[in-house]
Write a structure and sequence with these properties.
By secondary structure, the chain is mainly alpha-helical. 79% of the residues lie in helices and 0% in strands. It contains five helices and no strands. 5% of the residues are buried.
């Protein structure tokens, strides 16, 4: 598994649950400092999560959910 794959594989835990070891967290941070692609992806996901949290659980139309899923998959 490449470093990019490893970072993207663990990004949910890193951003949401913080359920990663200190060593893995350090490894992810170091990788993000060097890899623009992963940094951009993580920044996008972080901003998306922040906006979703601010929405406070408001109902979301199914069409919007599908559009977001497509955007995330294609990023």
């Amino acid at each position: 598994m490449s470093n990019c794959d490893k970072v993207l594989h663990h990004i949910y835990e890193y951003l949401n649950t913080h359920d990663v070891t200190d060593a893995l967290s350090d490894e992810i941070r170091e990788h993000l400092e060097k890899c623009r692609h992963c940094y951009d992806r993580v920044t996008f996901e972080k901003r998306l999560l922040e906006r979703l949290r601010r929405a406070g659980g408001a109902p979301c139309p199914e069409t919007l959910k599908k559009r977001i899923e497509t955007l995330v998959k294609n990023f």
